[in-house]
Design goal:
The chain has 176 residues and is α/β, with parallel strands linked by helices. The chain has helices at residues 3-20, 33-41, 46-54, 60-63, 76-82, 95-104; strands spanning 66-70, 87-91, 111-114, 117-118, 123-128, 138-140, 148-153, 167-171. Strands 3-2-1-8 form a 4-stranded parallel β-sheet, with helices on one face. Strands 4-7-5-6 form a 4-stranded mixed β-sheet, with no helix packed on it. The longest helix has 18 residues, at 3-20.
């Protein structure tokens, strides 16, 4: 092993020790953009997520009941939301990613995982996973190498948030 590699591994171990007390252990994809951030910082988009709850306009009495995590990926945001919401519905169309999502949220009794993509119509689709960003997968028209069949549904046919409450909705989407 080269010196540079030893230094990198040593730094990763230090980061892991620092983050272990503040963030949950997560299963991640080895060569993925989001995973690298989780390994380095313990949580992807930690500052952005915390800023939602620190915002003066955020009223926890209104927003504490339900959260929709659309494009949940491996569960980074889902885990964060599960700490403060009574119910989190995590939508993730990628069947492989859903397996990691299930592992990462296995202790969260308030998380419901739906292995579907959301769309303007109910249909079957093809998902092309991103090479270095699995969460950056996209629905494609034609079957190509590595694409997987997925189910697409309309949100209003699935989600029924609790009555008399507002629901927070996080949408992880990819620009094509």
């Amino acid at each position: 092993m080269e010196l540079r590699e030893r230094v990198v591994l040593s730094n990763l171990r230090k980061l892991a020790r620092r983050n272990l007390d503040k963030h949950p252990q997560m299963v991640v994809f080895a060569h993925d953009l989001v995973s690298h951030e989780i390994i380095a910082h313990g949580l992807y988009e930690a500052e952005l997520l915390q800023s939602i709850f620190d915002s003066p306009s955020f009223n926890s009495a209104l927003y504490s009941r339900a959260c929709l995590d659309i494009g949940a990926n491996i569960g980074n945001h889902t885990l964060f939301f599960a700490q403060d919401f009574q119910q989190v519905m995590a939508f993730e169309p990628n069947p492989l990613t859903v397996q990691l999502l299930k592992i990462n949220t296995r202790e969260c009794r308030n998380v419901r995982i739906l292995n579907i993509g959301l769309s303007a119509r109910s249909d079957r689709g093809l998902l092309q996973p991103g090479a270095f960003n699995v969460g950056g997968s996209k629905v494609v028209a034609n079957n190509s190498a590595g694409s997987v069949a997925i189910q697409l549904e309309k949100l209003d046919t699935i989600a029924t948030p609790p009555r008399n409450t507002d629901t927070i909705c996080k949408i992880g989407c990819r620009r094509s």
